[in-house]
Amino acid sequence: MKAKEQALFIQEQVSLAKYTTYKTGGTAEFFCLPKNIEEIKQAITFAKENKLDFRILGLGSNILVGDLGVKGLVCCLKDFEEIKIKDNTVYALAGTPLDKVIATSILNNLGGLEKLSGIPGSVGGAVYMNAGAFNSETWANIISVEVLKNGEIKTIKKEAVKPSYRKVSGLEDCLILSATWSLKTPADKKIREEILEKRKQKQPLEYPSAGSVFKRPQGDYASRLIDICNLRGLTIGGAQVSTKHAGFIINYNNASAQDIKDLMTEVQKIVKEKTGFSLELEQILWGKFKNS
Fold it and tell me: pTM for this one?
């Protein structure tokens, strides 16, 4: 099977390390960077006709790719980017960095997204998992999203879905194409500046990572539980529990994906033994790992 016979923009055996924020992991069997909806549809058709698994990748900020790679077609939307502002509404394509949407909104004196500043993901990823921070969530001001479902472009209004903590019921089997926010309050640049400074001071932004590793357990915080187990600095291979923020695992020294996965598992094991809490991964594991 030759990708070029189907679509010139589909490549074979592409390393995903440069497309994920952990900066490690294996290759995609097939890979593409569509720039428009037509190319996304072509990619889906290629996957169906060749009976390939189809995966969507945004900015790679919540994913760990196994060292042995990923079968099928990975469709990365980082070039599928656009922001439009009209009156008090903000429209952005799925591959647009969420933080760029926030910065652009503030430049147009549209407030409501400031507390999400610094989240490293794309619009599509943030919409799909209802990304949030500082008691604010992506879906707080969204009025609708455009999706591709069963080959058709559909508009889904907020009332038709149920956003909750790190998930949105009603978006199953949907490929997010865009989101539209309604922002009716003046922007507050100070809030954005304060949050970006907090992230800089408290998070290990100087190392490759993928943000918070674990979901917040009911009644507590993952980082606090990891802290009371004295796990800051715990290292396996080139992966380390950040000494700056216990909720982060960093690629400290050329870590393999297996190093990071093993460290995730070790943290879960120790926290369970010492506190009774079962930490659930917020991050998504893709493909094959050496020890599984």
Answer: 0.92
